[in-house]
Amino acid sequence: MNIFKIKKILTSTVTHTILIAVALTCVFPVFWMISSSLKTQSQIFSSMSLLPGPLLDILNWNWSNYITAFVKADFGQYFFNSVFYTVVGVFFIILISSLAAYAFSRLEFRGKNFLFYLLIATLLIPIPGVFVPLYLLLKNLSLLDTRTGLLLCYISNGLAFAIFLLKGFFDELPREIEEAALIDGASRFGIYWRIALPLAKPAIATLVIMNSLTIWNEFLLALVVLQDKAKMPIQRGLMVFQGTYITDYPLLMAGLTIATIPIVIVYLLMQKHIVKGIAAGALKG
Amino acid sequence: MKITPKEKLGNFIFVIPALVLFLIFSLYPILRTFELSVFQWNGIDKNMLFVGFAQYKHILFNNPAFWKSMANAGIITVLALTLQNGLALLLALLVTKNIRGENIYRTIFFLPPVLSGIVVGLIWKFVFDGNFGILNHFLTSIGFSNFADYAWLSEVRTALFSVAVVHMWKGFGYGFIILLAGLQTIPVELYEAAEVDGADSWQQFKNITFPLLIPIFTIVSILTILGSMQIFDLIYSMTRGGPAGHTHVPITKIYEYMSNGEFGYSTAMAVVFGMVLLIISFAQIYASKKLNYNNR
Amino acid sequence: MSKLKIFLSVNLCFALMLGVFAGCKPREVKPKADVVIWHWMTDRQAAFEQLADKYYKETGVKVLFETYAPTDVYKNKISAAATANLLPDIFNPLGDKKEVASYINADFIADLTEEMSRDNWKDIFFSKALAQNTFEPGNEWNVKPGIYAVPLDVNSLMIYYNKDLFKQAGLDPEKYPKTWPEFMEAGKKLRAANIQPFVSGFGEGWLIGAFAQSYEWNLFGRDGVLQVLEGKIPYTDPRWVRIFKLFEEMKNNKLFASGIVTMVNKDAERSFATGKSAMAFNGSWGVNVYHSMNPDLNYGVMPPPYLPEAKFPLLMFGGEGSSLFVNKSSANKQKAIDFLRWLTQDEQQTFLAKETLNIPSNKEVAKDLPPALRVFSENIKNTFEVLPKIESWQVTNYINLNLQSVIIGERTPKSAAEEVQAEKERQMKAGR
Fold it and tell me: Cβ contacts (< 8 Å) between A33 and chain B: which residues?
């Protein structure tokens, strides 16, 4: 009994040591980013201290940097755009890719394998080459400088990997329930919608996180495709602090912190769905 | 079950939205890329000079720097496949063990991928800096005084490896969440049954977790291969391909040619690079399929 | 049945979406301004906007400055817009002369010769800045001779030195090293006093190349430099080997700051501004940068030390800093040119110089500057001469790479020179 207990304590100590060590390296940059955002420009260069000032003086740290950054970067204007692109883009990526992935995994149709591998192959062509053809295409479709044009690029860009990941998940799900439902007279779409999709929740949550991150941080395509400032995403605002010659580090860090928060929130919301029990519970039912 | 042609057509509707978008916004631009790659063109001139496969020939036989960059990306990829994914798997397994604070860990491990490349580049340059870098500070304090002003990113011996470390640190979070999601699809009953049979944790891992995770490994390793071979931002912000070109990777090379007005040539490079990736990825899919069948 | 409905509605929804997109009429692009300028100088946006307001009040012409940064993104945007024929009224392709030539030959850039000759507009500029925007008769790209851009500011590259650190190492802060041997001695003394002697953004190829080129002018003179470009003098010439040797000497005497070969200029600037390095090879913009990082920095400026054995004057990288080109097919071409004319007049140039601490392209205005900047503006006359030929980017790249190789001790000066020469021969064979 005692040996068992010691062993247990030992394992848990080792486990936590590993986890804490890795966790520290992940937290440090965030800490540094926030700390830098509360310094002054000359403090950034002169002091190496990790805190912006004495802890007791916390109220006097440069909290106003956040307001300045928000106003100077026009975040108010860009924020809505980024939320819009991310929400709509991710929604359509998930919807369209899950439909296709389900078909690739479960249904029979002509040219299935060919199409699937063609899709995967596009994952592999590096973007720089595709840039100009894509731009000309948008021009020919009169989609330059439109939200739609940018969104369509984002959606199609996210599809291949999403289909690949979801097909992998669907393949692993047991077919028994679906077959039973089919015998009960459910339609293929009904099975996809009622059974397969809920079971793929962990995969979908993963995809939501990854695609939100991609779209939220993307700015190269947005800057090239869009002209109108009113349609630009939040990353456009961050440009203001990185001058050709002078970078305003405190404001840049404050801006980056602001721009990171929504993604962290998305992650927190979504990771709840990647929790033990959901898939298993559904299987029992 | 027999499938009627009508059903087949109905089934096809599932893929139509994906197919339409894919054809217009992915396949068409890619085909245009192929077309551009047989022209010598700077992206501006009104007329493009048709050169056939001359540029391909040049890339294949006369551009050792490009193949060197490919090898660099290859090294980073191999490191990432082993170390990064090993770490991701270890952490995913530890976190699913119902330990205390698992929620906090789950959140923290995804911070590196969320962080902006600007912050990551700045902070790691700060770590590796020769003069006042955190790493050298640490090494000298534990007695390695010859590291007093060793510039990790500027020495041929360590530059590529240092960049690879940062890349793996930034990337393990992805593998971590996908593996975590994959672990969720394994029914708990299997473990419960194994426990009843008296299987220890290693046996459970070997006989249940590992075989059932193989398809997830395929996904993670494809993602790792693509992410590592196509590494760009980190290299650009940390070394710009230096010292003396020793950390160049294919995408930085392609950008270099493109920004110097070699548009046609750089698209040909992109195509060659894409082909290499294609071969690697399909070999990988094929291998894991085999592994999967052997395990069943 | 209801499931079928959902299924159909999903597809319908999608079809509708596509329909809406396809049906989207090419909305008429409402001109929000008479003249649109795309630029990359983020840190000058505020000053530009003030000037645009002023111009609107004076003339009723609305000018819109749009920033796209960093420069890579800007370049992407310009070239994409060019392929689709959607360039703004005023822009800059941000390329070397060869690239600019292809924009001109593709009819994207207006010839400003006539306009700039009117009312002696062109005479207000530093002649060097103008020369860099001029194509001479018989140029190798077959561009119609003329002036194609309006310079906005100028710059030059020199060595900043920290007076306090000089004093600390026992050097006279008012007497900077003038010759290469003096420079080496100063470097050794600084190193002995535990101070890093020299820093620069040598990770960004062009800065290391600019430093080397100073000595190319020093050793070869105008005709020699031109002959190297034409391939008549090989890079294996003892003088070019000597240039590579200079970097080896700096390395052997431990002049370089740690990590210099992968350092970008912003990091180098930080190193100098925080007193981590005693000398910095940097451009005139550094005055503003150092001021923002450390207002109390006590520094002087010196030209790169010349070689005592050299027969020609040592020249420095510099001249045109940023210029603006006018879109040839712009509907508001005249308005755009008029605005540029206004922008380069004394009053506006004084304002820009004061706001952005850059040297204005208007040479009269450039006489009245803060002392640190004046050194640079007086130095414009010592910048590289404009030559009718440029080196191919591949060879330039090879020079920069091999200079880095020498610094990290991977190549000897001789083998580095041979590498460059081999590339030069490959390029000459390919380009004929």
Answer: 115, 119, 123
